[in-house]
What we know:
Structural class: mainly alpha
Distance between the termini: 9 Å
Helix content: 40-55%
Shape: globular
Largest sheet: 2 strands, antiparallel
Radius of gyration: 12 Å
Strand content: 5-15%
Amino acid sequence: MIDWSECSEVERNPAKVSGAWVFKGTRVPVKALFENLEGGATVDEFLEWFQGVQRSQVDAVLEHAQRSLETV
């Protein structure tokens, strides 16, 4: 399991999206990125569909996920 608390570009608030991890400053769940990528979307498409999310945030989330997998 990935520890999102160590990623500076995401946040969790019980009053926001039922406490799901979201991209900081948005209501877009991190889970939405991975679901869309798994469904065949590109990062550019995701950014177009979820306009509040910045490319730097997506890059940081993907890098964090990759680092987490390398330490398992």
